């Protein structure tokens, strides 16, 4: 029976260290600030926004929500984003994605200031994740996965990590972050042949698929560490991950639950990134 590795202790530890850093920065007369740019009022955006605001408050980080109408034109949106880019009091910017279809993310991603882009929207930050350049900002969720492993003492050096999912938000960046920690990384996706067989070779298995309970005990090697990024609804309308927790905990040495796992660490990563951006922008 594996150990359940929850997100809250990790989020608490990150928050504590961010609080201390924010106090130190404020003693210099600078107040770290996050701007959240939201188009429309998608319920999942609003839920994440509430969590992010609460976390910033706990950390002593200022925040501002720029809520824009769902039918805002591309030009108007870019004008608003540039205003936030140019606002010297703002150090971190979070733009909710996916954006409404009439807004072209492939153009907008070049507008957000890379120095303030705390959730890896800008291609500059995407490149930095690939380069292993630590001056950038990897997206919050993959970073949360890595923070959990660091907190619980998972040694990645030379281990085989298998990631299920190749999205730009989770699968690809988490693979790069694992590689940086000297894991040997295999990326699986919807066309992978013999997915359970591939996964059974993993010392560390990261599931970022979006398919409720896809990963059962036939995917897990005895003693593997299992990290579940998925957020899905099961047949009873309860939140569940991509991993069948009850089956996999029997084989895993460590396993994250859903809810209360990876998802509970993301806003503390965001806070950490705002502080980092603030330090870089102010050269402190
Ligand atoms: P996505 O839909 O962009 O990507 C899913 C990936 O899974 C794709 O690369 C696809 O190839 C792969 N895939 C799909 N079906 C598969 C199958 N049957 N076998 C193997 N691979 C398959 O999703 P995403 O944005 O990467 O998110 C993945 C999951 O993580 C979702 O459940 C999402 O809700 C969740 N998520 C959680 C957080 C968090 O904070 N915890 C943040 C972002 C996403």
UniProtKB/TrEMBL annotation:
Keywords from the named record: Amino-acid biosynthesis, Histidine biosynthesis, Hydrolase, Methionine biosynthesis, Multifunctional enzyme, NADP, One-carbon metabolism, Oxidoreductase, Purine biosynthesis
Organism this protein belongs to: Dethiosulfatibacter aminovorans DSM 17477
Function: Catalyzes the oxidation of 5,10-methylenetetrahydrofolate to 5,10-methenyltetrahydrofolate and then the hydrolysis of 5,10-methenyltetrahydrofolate to 10-formyltetrahydrofolate.
Domain of life per record: Bacteria
Reaction(s) the record says it catalyses: (6R)-5,10-methenyltetrahydrofolate + H2O = (6R)-10-formyltetrahydrofolate + H(+); (6R)-5,10-methylene-5,6,7,8-tetrahydrofolate + NADP(+) = (6R)-5,10-methenyltetrahydrofolate + NADPH
Coiled-coil annotated spans: none
InterPro entries, alphabetized: Aminoacid_DH-like_N_sf, NAD(P)-bd_dom_sf, THF_DH/CycHdrlase, THF_DH/CycHdrlase_cat_dom, THF_DH/CycHdrlase_NAD-bd_dom
Pathway assigned in UniProt: One-carbon metabolism; tetrahydrofolate interconversion
Gene label: folD
Protein name listed in UniProt: Bifunctional protein FolD
GO MF, any single term: methenyltetrahydrofolate cyclohydrolase activity
EC number: 1.5.1.5, 3.5.4.9
HAMAP family linked to this entry: THF_DHG_CYH (MF_01576)
Subunit structure: Homodimer.
GO CC annotations on file: cytosol
Entry keyword annotation includes Transport: no
């Amino acid at each position: 029976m594996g150990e359940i590795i929850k997100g809250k202790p990790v989020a608490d530890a990150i928050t504590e260290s961010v609080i201390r850093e924010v106090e130190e920065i404020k003693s210099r007369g600078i107040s770290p600030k996050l701007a959240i740019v939201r188009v429309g009022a998608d319920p999942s955006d609003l839920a994440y926004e509430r969590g992010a605001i609460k976390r910033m408050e706990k950390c002593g980080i200022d925040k501002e929500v720029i809520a824009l109408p769902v039918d805002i034109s591309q030009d108007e949106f870019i004008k608003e984003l540039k205003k936030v880019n140019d606002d010297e009091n703002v150090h971190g910017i979070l733009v909710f994605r996916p954006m409404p279809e009439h807004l072209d993310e492939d153009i907008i991603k070049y507008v957000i200031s890379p120095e303030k882009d705390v959730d890896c929207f800008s291609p500059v930050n995407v490149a930095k994740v690939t380069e292993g350049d630590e001056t950038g900002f990897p997206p919050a969720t993959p970073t949360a996965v890595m923070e959990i492993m660091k907190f619980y003492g998972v040694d990645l050096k030379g281990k085989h990590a298998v990631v299920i999912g190749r999205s730009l938000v989770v699968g690809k960046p988490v693979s790069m972050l694992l590689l940086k920690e000297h894991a040997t990384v295999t990326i699986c996706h919807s066309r992978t042949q013999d997915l359970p067989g591939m996964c059974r070779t993993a010392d560390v298995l990261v599931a970022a698929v979006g398919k409720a309970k896809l990963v059962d005990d036939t995917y897990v090697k005895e003693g593997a560490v299992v990290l579940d990024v998925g957020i899905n609804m099961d047949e009873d309308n309860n939140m569940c991950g991509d991993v069948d927790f009850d089956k996999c905990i029997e084989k895993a040495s460590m396993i994250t639950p859903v809810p209360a796992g990876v998802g509970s660490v993301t806003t503390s990563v965001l806070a950490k990134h705002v502080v980092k951006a603030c330090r870089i922008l102010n050269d402190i």
